[in-house]
Amino acid sequence: MIVYVTKRLVIGLVTLLLASVVVFGVLEILPGDPARIMLGMNAGPDALEALRQEMGLNQPAPVRFFQWLAGLVTGDLGRSYTYSSPVIDLVQERLVVSLPLALISLFLSTAIAIPVGVFAASRSGKLSDTLTMGTAQIGIALPNFWLALLLVYVFAVGLRVLPAGGFPGWADPVEAIKSLILPSISLALPQAAILARVTRSAMVETLGEDFIRTARAKGLPRRKVLWRHALRNAMIPVLTILGLQFSFLLAGTIIIENVFYLPGLGRLIFQAINQRDLIVVEGVVMLLVASLILINLAVDICYAIVDPRLRIGR
Q1: How many helices (H) and strands (E) does the chain have?
Q2: Which of 101-110, 242-251, 292-301 has the highest mean pLDDT?
Q3: Other C-beta atoms lying within 10 Å of the C-beta of residue 213
Q4: 286 touches 91 (CB < 8 A)
Q5: What is the CATH number of the domain that holds 110?
Q6: How far apart are CA 100 and CA 264, in angstroms?
Q7: Cα separations (Å) of 212 from 8, 118, 169, 174, 199?
Q8: Which of 165, 213, 232, 260 is found 20 to 30 A from 6 (Cα to Cα)?
Q9: Dist. CA 27–CA 259, nearest whole Å
């Protein structure tokens, strides 16, 4: 188990280093002068040069890359020139919105998808299976921003039971959670549709295995065969999708946060790109990459827990 986790850690560190090179390189080749965008087209040469020097843009790209990388290692993500604040402070302010939103969405997605997938697999080939997977296919095809607008129209404009947007802060937890319900549903339903189809496919394959027939031959109850034996052995592809979904929910909420005017990480990245605040973009993207690697590591450890063969290197 220790060797297995160590290998995954080494792979994660190498991936993080390669990602830092890609992120820095992509932002370097983007057109436009950050100093001119920040000061405006009418800024004088002296002001532009002073700002470039303050931002370090007058130094060679390799020097700036290694300075930025050294800052990442020590936890210093730099200072935003737009907000005049350390990037890590901006991330902490926005994470109190994005992280609960991602966790609530993941919980809703999992709570819906796994029972639906198990139900469909247990009735494979029947009308109920066809209807369930057809509904899931519709859920996959629906854009989450369109679903978000529909939910706002029904529950905020029509019924007036939930807020249409904004975030009041965690001083009032009830209002804060209410403001995250519609965004969470908008994110969770399409992801639940994907996860339900994966769960159903994995369960159908597992239900055809010899050990399932043996469990049935021993007279075990159908529910016990499904949930204790079949589902556990079908969890590896499900865990893979869960890890990817959490990463997507944490990093891919730009559209939803803009629809609901939520001050989260997605909206911060969107605003930083518009303002060419490269320090913010680089820092936030690298934090999201690091979170993705940590989540994948957690998923790999869950693999080893679910499948003992991985712990002994098979």
Answers
A1: 16, 2
A2: 101-110
A3: 12
A4: no
A5: 1.10.3720.10
A6: 10
A7: 32, 15, 50, 45, 17
A8: 232
A9: 26
Instruction: Report the alpha-carbon distance of residue 53 to residue 58 in Å, rounded.
Output: 6
Query: Are residues 114 and 255 both part of a single domain?
Result: yes
CA angle, 149 as apex, 109 and 285 as ends, to 5°? 60
Indicate left, alpha or beta for 160 from its phi (over 0: left) and psi (-120 to 50: alpha): left
pLDDT of residue 164: 87
* Domain tally, the chain: 2
Please state the separation of Cα 225 from the chain's center in Å.
Answer: 33
Same domain, 187 and 39: no
Q: What is the pTM of this model?
A: 0.79
Range of the domain at 267: 94-311
Dmax (CA) of the chain: 84
The number of C-alpha atoms within 13 Å of 38 and in the hemisphere containing its C-beta is 22
Q: Which of 21, 55, 87 is the last residue of a domain?
A: 87
Distance from the Cα of residue 33 to its chain's centroid: 31
